[in-house]
Automatic annotation (TrEMBL):
It holds the Pfam family G6PD_N. It comes from the Bacteria. Pathway: Carbohydrate degradation; pentose phosphate pathway; D-ribulose 5-phosphate from D-glucose 6-phosphate (oxidative stage): step 1/3. This is Glucose-6-phosphate 1-dehydrogenase. Substrate binds at residues 199, 203, 237, 256, 365. InterPro entries: G6P_DH, G6P_DH_AS, G6P_DH_C, G6P_DH_NAD-bd, NAD(P)-bd_dom_sf. Residues 33-208 form the Glucose-6-phosphate dehydrogenase NAD-binding domain. NADP(+) binds at residues 70, 169. It comes from Pseudoxanthomonas gei. Catalyzes the oxidation of glucose 6-phosphate to 6-phosphogluconolactone. Transmembrane segments: none annotated. It catalyses: D-glucose 6-phosphate + NADP(+) = 6-phospho-D-glucono-1,5-lactone + NADPH + H(+). Keywords: Carbohydrate metabolism, Glucose metabolism, NADP, Oxidoreductase.
């Protein structure tokens, strides 16, 4: 049984007031340069996101998008690649089809090598010819090129005025390498110009978490160790390596997902109320959480962490190879790897609000389902007044689904309708964003790209946040190196190693599974 949340129209409803209907506010004219413009992220996420914003009228006609890569391509050839990538976005929608040609006309291409000086002066002259307009440099490349690109942007005068630089994770592989990158980028751009992107913070549900907590009195009084039993954060993928073998095998799930995505979600759940919805006020509170995380040392890493690696199994209706076999096919000669494709761990925030409340985190590839969600599990009622025949009284849960179907569920106990005595059921009040609002929900990159153009850093990581996250992750990495254990095997298409189940069940809890 599922109860939906509906929003009935009234004279005050937004749909009856043209002045407050959902609309997009155009940003200033800008140039956006994508380094790695022929790569997977650019073609699959960044350019489709920009196209959507353009189609909705948010991007001015005189703005430009420039792809940069080492491939030798003409503008026309690059536009053809982008057009092919946008086909899935456009589908059979006539409105989007009509917007394709004018959007492609905004696109240009430059062949540049980040490690060489050739071609940079002409590239700089073309951008500077447009005066001091907003210039966004998106570094959709390997982190090893961040320093070279930023140094050349500075050398050619492209780091001044309204220039901004966006850097993707991973920012380093540990504290030391992150400091090198941050120092180099910081020598070319001021901190206010640097946007360290984590696309999970751009998801509608993550932002709605702020609204649920701080725009309603219902939850905040209960948002503490007196009423919350534990918190679960799951980011599960069904895909394997895809085209990321070279990067992933030197990174692993802890660096790739936990250090950024999962810790940022943990911060959003557990942070104190900021003084205002201003960038530094929000990021100050997240930083306090990161600095309050109880360290996981070599002595307790075995009890508090689980790492795994998928073996051959079934996923998305077909047989799939194991990680090592997949790696060998992509990188000839590789026959083994100790890289983890799954991580589960138990974290604690040592402060007054959350003392004694465990945060269970898990993430992995080739899992049973593609899902990202946050579960706030409340404590059970202190005493049940109902007879045993009514059934068990289950604890309330607030479930925030980030993907694939963004929404919020509040699990409650209610009486089962009908005669024959009182029977209890555990059912969700269910709000699906798509059903409730009936409009296209901008993807995370759409929102974040426009925030960069506006110069709004609220949903981006500050340098001290990155440093604090690595400070907590480094001892776990060191402990794993000391332990020298191989990752625990798990079958592709499962929910990970059995040890991940034991991690939570030895505390008398279990991983959330949405059966509704």
């Amino acid at each position: 049984m599922v109860f939906r949340w509906y929003f009935p129209c009234s004279d005050h409803c937004a749909c009856k007031r043209p002045d407050v209907t959902a609309k997009t506010v155009p940003v200033e004219t800008f140039d956006l340069v994508i380094f790695g413009g022929t790569g997977d992220l650019a073609l699959r996420k960044l350019l489709p996101g920009l196209f959507r914003r353009y189609a909705d009228g948010q991007i001015p006609e005189d703005s430009r998008v420039v792809g940069v890569a080492r491939d030798t391509l003409s503008d026309a050839e690059y536009r053809a690649r982008v057009s092919e990538a946008l086909a899935a976005v456009i589908g059979n929608e006539p409105v989007l089809q009509a917007k394709l040609a004018p959007f492609l006309a905004r696109l240009g291409y430059h062949a540049l090598d980040a490690t060489k000086d050739e071609g940079w002066q002409g590239f700089a002259d073309e951008l500077l010819a447009h005066g001091d307009r907003i210039r966004v440099f998106y570094l959709s490349t390997s982190p090893g090129l961040f320093v070279d690109i930023c140094n050349r942007l500075r050398a050619h005068g492209l780091n001044g005025g309204k220039s901004r630089v966006v850097i993707e994770k991973p920012i380093g592989k540990d504290s030391a390498s992150a400091a090198v990158i941050n120092d180099a980028v910081g020598s070319a751009f001021s901190e206010s110009q640097i946007f360290r992107i984590d696309h999970y913070l751009g998801k509608e549900t993550v932002q709605n978490l702020m609204a649920l907590r701080f725009a309603n009195i219902l939850f905040e009084p209960l948002w503490n160790s007196n009423y919350v039993d534990h918190v679960q954060i799951t980011v599960a993928e069904t895909v394997g390596l895809e085209k990321r073998a070279g990067y992933y095998d030197t990174s692993g799930a802890l660096r790739d997902m936990v250090q950024n995505h999962l810790l940022q979600l943990l911060c959003m759940v557990s942070m104190e109320s900021p003084a205002a919805m201003r960038a530094d006020a929000v990021r100050d509170e997240k930083l306090k959480v990161l600095r309050s995380l109880r360290p996981i040392t070599a002595e307790d890493a075995a009890a508090l962490t689980v790492r795994g690696q998928y073996r051959a199994g079934a996923s998305n209706g077909g047989a799939v190879p194991g990680y090592v076999d997949e790696l060998a096919a992509l990188e000839a000669g590789r026959t083994d790897s100790r890289t983890e494709t799954f991580v589960a761990l138990k974290a604690e925030v040592d402060n007054w609000r959350w003392a004694g409340v465990p945060f269970y985190l898990r993430t992995g590839k080739r899992l049973a389902e593609r899902v990202s969600e946050i579960v706030i599990a409340f404590k059970p009622v202190p005493h049940s007044i109902f007879e045993q025949t009514a059934g068990p009284v289950m604890a309330n849960k607030l479930v925030l689904r980030l993907q694939p179907d963004e929404g919020v569920k509040l699990w409650l106990m209610i009486k089962d309708p009908g005669p024959g005595g009182l029977r209890l059921q555990h059912v969700p009040l269910d709000m699906s964003f798509a059903e409730a609002f009936g409009v296209h929900q901008p993807e995370a990159y759409e929102r974040l790209l426009m925030d960069v153009v506006r110069g709004n850093p609220t949903l981006f990581m500050r340098r001290d946040e990155v440093e604090a996250a690595w400070k907590w992750i480094d001892p776990i990495l060191a402990a794993w190196e000391t332990m020298r254990d191989s990752p625990r095997p798990y079958t592709a298409g499962s929910w990970g190693p059995g040890a991940a189940v034991a991690l939570i069940e030895r505390d008398g809890r279990t991983w959330h599974e949405d059966a509704a």
